[in-house]
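Reviewer comment 2.1 asked that we show a complete input and output for one of the modelled complexes. We chose the zinc ion case, as it is the one discussed in the main text.
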Amino acid sequence: MDLEWSNAYVASEKRLMNVAISVGAVKTDEQFNIIDRFSAYIKPGRGFRLRKDVKNLTGITEEQLSNGISFSDTVKALCRFVDEEDTLLFWGGSDMAVLDENCRVFLGLDRVPFVNRYIDMLKACDEKLEIPGNHQLSLADTAKLLQVDIDGLSAHDAFDDSIMALKCFKKLFINEDTSRYVIECDSEYYARKRFQKYKISDCNDPRLKGDLVMVRCPSCRATLQRTEKLHSNGCNMFARHHCPSCGEDFFVGMVFTVTYDGVKRHISIRPWKNAVKNDE
Ligand SMILES: [Zn+2]
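Response of the prediction step:
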């Protein structure tokens, strides 16, 4: 499945949002042979303006959109197209993020009703091709690299992109167990996704205890002793620490971020002398 969207001001939200404008999908058997197709232009709500760059990139026109079906009807149609036990394949994580936000804002749904589980094909293909995380390839580049036949398919057309992505995925994963890539969209999935990370700014926060504030000496690994109260400058906390084993003093800076999986710490340690010299 592939989605095209345009960043647009949504009056009800009083902010810019990625609004879905087109969705294309193919249904396949277990051998990735295409057995059904889906394609729709989504009629946007009042006040929507299609961005020029999106228009140029996707070739979608205002006219196609105004002749399209509402987002609500698109979702209903997709609920009929997708079976409950189906695994969806998306290229990257953003299509699912846009679907989720659009379902929430426009339909008041707390989940995407037709997605029970999915695979991020981009992630799976990059992993298989051993492409480092910061060098993600575009769909068209991956297709080129894998020498899949994309004749007659235009990039950034939702339906053609879904076929292109399927061809890439098929080339790499046919006859292979792909279950390790499946993401179940259960309540935990959404809870994790909706969780807003934040940084702790209060040095006296009761969560700052135990291992979270334990610091080891960078040279001898002994546990450092804090020799003064923790100070904070916004979310950056710092304090002088002393190593009882090698007798050195250290400047320790820490940032604590509250995530779905608990509080995570980012730490930096410098010898006290250097730290003081740098501050002069
Ligand atoms: Zn030490």
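The pocket of zinc ion is lined by residues 217, 219-220, 222, 243, 245-246, 248 (CB under 6 Å). We note this here for comparison with the apo prediction described in Section 3.2.
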